[in-house]
Design brief:
The complex is a heterodimer. Chain A contains no helices and 12 strands. By secondary structure, chain A is mostly beta strands. In chain A, the strands form 3 sheets. In chain A, strands 2, 5, 6, 10, 11 and 12 form a 6-stranded mixed beta sheet that branches. Chain A has a 4-stranded antiparallel beta sheet with strand order 3-9-8-7, with no helix packed on it. By secondary structure, chain B is mainly beta. Chain B contains no helices and 11 strands. In chain B, a hairpin with a 3-residue loop joins β4 and β5. Chain B is globular. Classes of the chains: A mainly beta, B mainly beta. Chains A and B meet through β6, β10 and β11 of A and β5 and β10 of B.
Chain lengths: ~110, ~120
């Protein structure tokens, strides 16, 4: 079935370090791909998305490229800040005929130290 | 602009009691989603509505759970009777146009439910 696999956390980095959070997916058809972020005590917020192969989503210095050949959507940021500490969820959208649902990965906790 | 509003933010109840969670979506959004988040199962879609009509309720755990959307600005998720395994954070989300499966979903702050 359709699924998303994320790297296990927590990921601990020093401020200004390079970040990669791996995400791979299994899906029939051509899903849209998303990264959502959850700050402590809050709901999820969309960070970025890509709707077709080779699209690059970007926001707030974060980037991810939809790679159909490797079924991946890895999240990257060149220089993390303490304020980036949060849980990051990779997700895909599956369905048809106007009935779609988001399937989330298990989430990766990022902790950035000053 | 007000985001998705959920109430209550925290609910503690005893096993067997009825629990009602409430959600007000962003004005103008035509899709509404209920999710449950637990450590063991992660984030799961329970049900979603499009134009107040339930489209997919395959995630609703069992008959103890029910959801309604009587109008475009209000939805409820009810658990009757509640059980300790229902303890979780329940999120409501809304989307302007989810028909194509690529629009942004806006999440509320969640309701943390504890069933003793």
């Amino acid at each position: 079935g359709d699924s998303v696999t994320q790297m296990e956390g927590p990921v601990t980095l020093s401020e200004e370090a390079f970040l990669t959070i791996n995400c791979t997916y299994t899906a029939t058809g051509y899903p849209s791909l998303f990264w959502y972020v959850q700050y402590p005590g809050e709901g999820l917020q969309l960070l970025l998305k890509a709707t077709k192969a080779d699209d690059k989503g970007s926001n707030k210095g974060f980037e991810a490229t939809y790679r159909k050949e490797t079924t991946s959507f890895h999240l990257e940021k060149g220089s993390v800040q303490v304020s980036d500490s949060a849980v990051y969820f990779c997700a895909l959208s599956v369905g048809m005929d106007s009935s779609y649902k988001l399937i989330f990965g298990s989430g990766t906790r990022l902790l950035v130290r000053p | 602009d007000a985001g998705v509003i959920q109430s209550p933010r925290h609910e503690v109840t005893e096993m067997g009691q009825e629990v009602t969670l409430r959600c007000k979506p962003i004005s103008g959004h035509n899709s509404l989603f209920w999710y449950r988040q637990t450590m063991m199962r992660g984030l799961e879609l329970l049900i979603y509505f499009n134009n107040n009509v339930p489209i997919d309720d395959s995630g609703m755990p069992e008959d103890r759970f029910s959801a309604k959307m009587p109008n475009a600005s209000f939805s409820t998720l009810k658990i009757q009777p509640s059980e300790p395994r229902d303890s979780a954070v329940y999120f409501c989300a809304s989307s302007l146009d989810w028909a194509g499966g690529s629009d942004t979903q806006y999440f509320g702050p969640g309701t943390r439910l504890t069933v003793l």
